[in-house]
Design brief:
The chain is 34% helix and 29% strand. It has 9 helices and 20 strands.
Length: 353
């Protein structure tokens, strides 16, 4: 019995010693993953008068060749650092709660800067922002270790197997089609927000060209889809007609871009069928994208636009004002995306056989 107690005490002391050693080691080699801030909502932030702004200095360093190395002033805590990825403007912001503009005025950023065009430091009352202009759209990994913030930039395809771009048409002064007190830009944005709620719980990475009342240029919208090499681009629009009796849902597709098995035509067909089924509406059929469909025409991936009803028809306009109806439309688009991936996976299995 005494021997058993001695062994137990011995094991306890040994365990405590090992645990203490691990704690000491981790304290001296602290590695913390910085939580990123989801940037699904595309925001703009204008500099106010009086803000200080200066270029960042980049120098040679011994940092990991795969990472950008940002030295941190003092004992910075992970919770005091925030990273925001503004993919629409191809910028990455590193934000600190305190004013470190003097520190970054005399301290160089080292490591791998292949994906960075330039960087600058802004100081505000709320803290300091390091803004990096990137060469393209990237995802990233970040860790905080021994008072350095390491950021690795990665093509989206290396982190995500499924990538979709959702493009709500219009924005800001570009209201699009309008009638009966409704504007296209508001209707499609409402649908996109409801669609986001559904896609957020999937394994699909989604890039939204806008999630508020802003207007990204058409060239910017399509370049995002091409840059991230998305599996598909879906543009959400509404229809209009001089004949106020016209109603129904239609889809347009990119006839310039064709791939076997699943391309733009198949995507447009899925979108129209699933949305019409969800809203129990009328299908008007598919059409090739015209001159006014720049985003669809210039996409180098399967691309289609779904026109979710005629805003110029009084009854459909009334429906497009209804939140439940918009959710039905979002459900139809969601089902089309899910079935598109199921179809692609089924094709891969058949090819594998």
């Amino acid at each position: 019995m005494q021997q058993l107690m001695k062994k137990t005490i011995g094991y306890s002391v040994a365990f405590a010693a090992v645990s203490m050693a691990v704690i000491v080691y981790m304290a001296s080699h602290k590695v913390v993953v910085i939580a990123d801030v989801a940037q699904d909502e595309v925001r703009t932030m204008d500099r106010e008068a009086g803000q200080e702004r200066g270029p960042l200095s980049f120098g040679e360093g011994e940092g990991d060749a795969n990472y950008l190395c940002i030295p941190l002033p003092g004992a910075s805590k992970a919770e005091a650092v925030k990273i925001e990825n503004y993919y629409m403007s191809k910028e990455l912001w590193v934000i600190f709660e305190n004013d470190y503009s003097d520190f970054y005025g005399r301290t160089s950023i080292t490591g791998n800067r292949d994906n960075i065009k330039f960087g600058y430091c802004e100081s505000e009352e709320s803290g300091t922002m390091l803004k990096f202009s990137l060469t393209g759209v990237y995802e990233y990994r970040s860790i905080l270790e021994e008072n350095n913030l390491y950021i690795e930039f990665l093509p989206p395809g290396e982190l995500h197997e499924k990538i979709v771009v959702i493009d709500p048409a219009g924005g800001k002064e570009q209201s699009g089609a309008s009638a009966y007190g409704l504007a296209e830009k508001d209707v499609v944005l409402g649908i996109a927000r409801k669609l986001k709620e559904k896609l957020d719980i999937t394994d699909i990475k989604v890039y939204y060209t806008r999630m508020e009342d802003v207007y990204p240029e058409e060239e910017t919208r399509v370049s995002i889809a091409n840059d991230v090499k998305a599996d598909m681009l879906i543009r959400i629009e509404v229809g209009e007609s001089q004949d106020t009796m016209d109603f129904g849902t239609s889809a347009v597709y990119n006839e310039r871009y064709f791939i076997p098995d699943f391309g733009s035509v198949e995507l447009a067909d899925l979108l129209e069928r699933e949305v019409v089924t969800s809203i129990k509406g009328k299908a008007l059929g598919l059409e090739p994208a015209g001159e006014g469909d720049y985003v669809i025409q210039e996409a180098e991936i399967p691309a289609a636009g779904i026109k979710v009803g005629h805003i110029t028809n009084e009854k459909e306009a009334s429906l497009l004002r209804n939140e439940i109806y918009l959710d039905y439309i979002a459900s139809g688009i969601y089902q089309a995306i899910i079935k598109a991936y199921e179809r692609e996976e089924g094709t891969e299995l058949l090819q594998g056989e």
